[in-house]
Amino acid sequence: AISGLMLATFVGIHLLNVPLAAFPGAYDAYQRVLRQLYQSPFFEIPVIFLPLGVHLAAGIRAILGHKTRAPARTWPARLHRWSAWYLLASVVGHAIATRAPSVFFGIWLESLGLAFTLRWLPYFFWPYYIGLGLAGVAHLGYGLPRALAVARRRADRSAASRLLAVGLAIAAIAIVLGVVGIGGLLYEIGDPYATDYADLYRSIDDSPFVPDVPDRGR
């Protein structure tokens, strides 16, 4: 619960970035300001990576002990659990794919880099990004009140809140619109293949694990 509360700050910042992509230039402008905070070692290590490691370990421990775990009887509980499975399967690879280029090569993903992945492997990245955003909304929305209740040793009654459900539904729609904006379906964007992020993948496209990346201008 404590690790979840610590992660909630970053997750909230991260999720808010996505709907801004529905407006030209807003995604990158927001990210360039906020990443000075959340990508600094004084924030990233103690507030993101250490709590993330604890949260993942706790989640895996809960899965391994599933025989003694109570079944999820309500829709909020099911959504919270299903979103946890999705995030558990994707968060490590997502962190590597987004942070390694900036740490080792000085290349930041930004919206056009994300648009490149949507053009490059659309059948994978469109459902992946939308699923990741929706899982983040569900896990944060239903997990934060639960974590607060556990930390305060009180019962969590938020799952029955219609207001919370409506708020999460609106947030989910905003996430989808943001991904659509990143993909260039709401307004004209630049050439996704003419980015440093695309060039990075071209440099490793001889690997059997990396599909070919088209040339610039395609």
Q: What general form does the structure show?
A: globular
What does the main sheet amount to?
none
DSSP, total strands: 0
Compute the CA-based radius of gyration. 18 Å
Distance between the termini: 47 Å
SSE string, helices as H and strands as E: HHHHHHHH
Class derived from helix and strand content: mainly alpha
3D structure, described in words:
With 218 residues, this protein is mostly helical. The protein is built from eight helices and no strands. It has helices at 2-17, 26-38, 41-64, 75-105, 110-120, 122-151, 162-182, 196-203. The longest helix has 31 residues, at 75-105.
In short:
It is built from eight helices and no strands.
Which key features would you list for this structure?
globular; 71% helix; 218 residues; mainly alpha; 8 helices; single chain
